[in-house]
Design goal:
Layout (H helix, E strand, L loop, with lengths): L2 H17 L7 E3 L5 E3 L1 H9 L3 H11 L7 E6 L3 E6 L1 H12 L14 E5 L11 H19 L3 E5 L8 H12 L1 H9 L3 H14 L1 H16 L2 H25 L18 H10 L3 E4 L2 E4 L14 E4 L7 H14 L5 E4 L6 H13 L8 E4 L5 E2 L16 H19 L5 H21 L7 E2 L2 H5 L6 H18 L23 H10 L2 H11 L2 H21 L7 H25 L8
Parallel strand pairs: 5-6, 5-10, 10-11, 12-13
Antiparallel strand pairs: 1-2, 2-4, 3-4, 7-8, 8-9
The protein binds arginine.
Arginine binds next to helix 12.
Length: about 575
């Protein structure tokens, strides 16, 4: 149950009565009461009346006591809202008995296609693919948990002119040797060697050109060699997903080549619709509203002057297939912000062609870059792009070392398990806890710190609660589920910190509902951090195990519920919790 929304729904008719039209009551958490509604101030300005009078008039219309809420006008014209202890205790008891922690499954399931990760064959995954994979995985988890039908699509870059040169290089190396290079994940070396030959050697260039023609013409041997490249790369990407602990599997690869047979039809249909314009030998669509620096209309090139189709045509075909065949009603593209214009144009053309129309929505979930300590794009010492696997391995190694130094008695296996959950969790959380569209600096010290808005802080809060529950004798085994039941006795609020924690726990549903819509995952991360902070304050002031019976039960319940919420929330972000740390 979403408390903020409930209060908002109750206040909205009262505001409407006073305003003579709809007003968002602007309900939020409050430092003085449990919640406050701020909309009377702006409304008063509009009506030319004193704000406190307006707030009072709203309250005269509002029905709140049946849900155990008392309200009063405060300060210049805020409305303070406070739940009675009884109502709050009831709501928390409801959460305690609910496996979904107050978050209902959606009443309107959608088919959502999530396009994410999408590295390129025979090329190393870079940090941009890391962000796409981490954000996409969290979106998939959240939407799936809410009951949507989610289709994961890994739009692998497995097609196009570079494959002529890559296949020729493969032939030069010999299949066995090439497979060896590629399976070791030495993709960049392979790609670069091919590129160097291509740039230096005209005969190689010509061979590569012919090879592209053979590939497109469906020549059998060429196809087989191309498959070899793709399979080796896929195998390698799967090891990265495994290390990164994300749910992408071999079944989710649906590379650009999968749309190859649809491209001519896409271009024909655009032509039939009268949307195509020739430009310098290429066939283009000029969607309205897109202009270059010089003010001239910008083309989306759907067929190149050499007759080949490229990235934009493929995205148009994929979009049409996702809506038409997969029945998608929501299309998500988790791709870096440099491709913002590409997607805006693809969506505009698809709309103009009638392939994308309400209620189907397409959204580009663009993201910023990961920066090095120097504030510039993350690069290795040699100035090359950083290899993703190296980054992940470093995270795990650092987290393992930290775990060992904090607890020298840990055996190697336990240290490795903690290192993996914390290291990978820290990488993911650093990404998911900032506004997606901003750049962020990869700072090991900060992201692995046990305090601050970090994965280890949240994981540690969870482990600490598990340890309390163990000592209390409930959920004694480390992996035992935390008891899920409506408490027999009412929850007690002896201290303000208990109350604050209870109100925070009730906020989970609202945040998850909000993120379902916005996919601003940092809102969920921020919520979990607030929850863990509220728990710390509670734990400092409210002894649990030493409290008398009734209080002890009540506090154990709040603690258990906090642990379940942290675990569920982190799980939605793709981050593991540990019963011991
Ligand atoms: N392979 C592309 C890249 O590495 C990303 C593809 C994103 N998805 C899409 N449907 N265009 O930049």
């Amino acid at each position: 149950m979403d408390l903020e929304k409930l209060l908002s729904d109750r206040l909205a008719p009262a505001f409407a009565a006073v305003a003579g039209g709809p007003v968002d009551p602007l309900v939020r958490r409050s430092g003085r009461a449990d919640f406050q509604a701020d909309a009377a101030l702006a409304l008063a300005r509009r009506l030319g009346r004193p704000p406190r009078d307006v707030a009072g008039a709203v309250l005269a219309h509002a029905v709140l006591d049946d849900i155990g809420v008392s309200a009063e006008v405060s300060g210049p014209g805020f409305i303070n809202l406070t739940l009675t202890d009884r109502a709050l205790a009831d709501l928390v008891a409801g959460l305690a008995g609910d496996a979904r922690l107050g978050v209902p499954s959606t009443a309107t399931p959608q088919t959502v296609v999530v396009d994410y990760s999408a590295p390129n064959v025979a090329k190393e995954m870079h940090v941009g693919h890391l962000r796409s994979t981490v954000i996409g995985d969290a979106a998939v988890r959240l939407l799936t948990w809410l009951g949507h039908r989610v289709v994961r699509v890994n739009h692998l870059g497995d097609w196009g002119t570079p494959f002529g040169m890559l296949i020729e290089h493969l032939i030069d190396l010999g299949e066995a040797e090439a497979a060896q290079h590629l399976s070791m994940g030495d993709l960049d070396t392979f790609y670069r060697a091919a590129r160097v030959k291509f740039d230096a050697d005209e005969a190689f260039q010509e061979r590569s050109r012919l090879r592209v023609v053979a590939l497109q013409g469906g020549d059998e041997r060429t196809r087989r060699l191309w498959r070899l490249l793709v399979t080796q790369s896929e195998r390698y990407f799967l090891t990265v997903y495994d290390l990164l602990d994300v749910g992408l599997s071999g079944d989710d690869f649906r590379g650009e080549s999968a749309y190859n047979h649809l491209l001519a039809g896409v271009v024909d249909d655009l032509d039939r619709l009268g949307l195509l314009r020739p430009s310098g030998g290429a066939a283009c669509v000029f969607p309205p509203g897109f202009t270059g620096r010089d003010g001239a209309p910008l083309p989306l090139i759907v067929r190149k002057s050499d007759g080949g189709y490229g990235y934009p045509a493929t995205d148009l075909a994929a979009l049409r297939q996702r809506v038409g065949e997969l029945g998608a009603t929501r299309l998500l593209y988790v791709v870096g912000l440099p491709q913002r214009q590409h997607f805006a144009m693809v969506f505009a053309v698809a709309e103009a062609a009638g392939w994308l129309h309400p209620p189907v929505r397409a959204e580009h979930l663009g993201f910023g870059s990961i920066l090095g300590a120097d504030g510039r794009m993350l690069r290795s010492r040699a100035g090359e792009s950083v290899k993703l696997v190296g980054l992940l391995e470093e995270a795990v190694a650092r987290a393992t070392d930290l775990a060992r130094s904090r607890n020298p008695d840990l055996d190697a296996e336990a240290a490795a398990e903690i290192g993996r959950a914390v290291g990978i969790g820290a990488i993911k959380y650093a990404d998911l806890s900032v506004d997606r569209t901003t750049d962020y600096v990869l700072d090991w010290e900060r992201m692995l710190a046990l305090d601050g808005n970090t994965a280890p802080y949240l994981q540690y809060a969870y482990a600490r609660i598990r340890s309390v529950l163990r000592r209390a004798g409930t959920a004694a085994r480390p992996d035992a589920p935390i008891v899920l039941a409506r408490p027999a006795a009412p929850i007690v609020f002896a201290q303000p910190a208990e109350r604050a924690l209870a109100v925070e726990l009730l906020g989970f549903a609202g945040v998850v509902g909000e993120v379902e819509r916005s996919l601003e995952l940092h809102q969920l991360a921020g919520y979990l951090h607030r929850l863990a902070t509220a728990f710390s304050a509670f734990y400092e002031r409210c002894p649990v195990l030493r409290a008398s019976d009734e209080l002890r039960e009540s506090r154990l319940l709040l603690a258990g519920l906090t642990a379940r919420t942290l675990r569920q929330g982190l799980d939605l972000l793709g981050i593991r919790t540990l019963a011991r740390m």
